[in-house]
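ARCHIVE RECORD
Type: protein–small molecule complex
Small molecule: adenosine-5'-diphosphate
Source of inputs: curated submission
Record status: active
Notes field left blank by submitter.
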Amino acid sequence: MDKKTYVVEMENVKKSIGKKVILKGINLRVKRGVVHVIAGPNGAGKTTTLRVMLGLLRADEGKIEVLGTDPKSPQWTKTRELIGYLPEDAGVYERLTGIENLYYYAMLYTRGNKRRAWKLVERGIKISGLSKEALSKRAGGYSKGMKRRLLLARTLMHEPLLAVLDEPTSGLDVRSAIEVRKLIRSLAERGSTFIITTHNLLEAQYIADYVSFIDKGKVVCTCSVAEALESFGADNLEEAFVKATGGMEK
Ligand code: ADP
Ligand code: MG
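STRUCTURE (tokenized, with ligand):
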């Protein structure tokens, strides 16, 4: 397959912090234009994988290319602008209104071009699905679900080629989580690539085109959801994950 088919390629990427080996040789390839979910339990190494992928943490070993660029290279600053990243601990500016939150980021994305920034804000408003009334109130008073929608809008309003979302639904109640999943699926139909982590295998089944199971610092397998179910003879991805990682913990 043509190399350019992949927006992310990680080969044997290792990372230790102090004496703790966190990534034990991550192999991951993400195809252009798909929703690729990295699924695994808490502590598996999902967040660290993303941080290393985006050059926020330096890998100890291995090869990384994102949109054809090594995060260590000088070209990375330019490539980074094509990527929308929502860290797992991201928060809104509580004292600013929803609109002001979007505008603040839009001004960063456009380097202070007010006219272009407002265009992004308009797109952000649509993505958020929040009412104009809600958006004119301080974000500090929003529910968790509303805050998450605002964060997603902030991350995606400049239509990044690659969106990287770390546990975008964690901590949300069932209804808000469903809303956020639907939003992600509908945005994905427009052709950007999404890399999303989750510890919720059933969520992975719903939003993923491709899934990588990660466990104890290693990617155990990568395939389409249908292939995962078939090759592990599983009814759902939770069952497939348990089979792929050698059964239940004793
Ligand atoms: P996940 O996102 O899958 O829950 P993480 O990548 O956050 O997993 O963490 C993987 C493992 O690495 C966990 O055991 C975590 O405690 C450990 N870890 C992550 N960051 C650090 C750090 N800065 N210092 C020490 N240990 C860390
Ligand atoms: Mg995490």
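CURATOR ANNOTATION: The longest helix spans residues 114-128.
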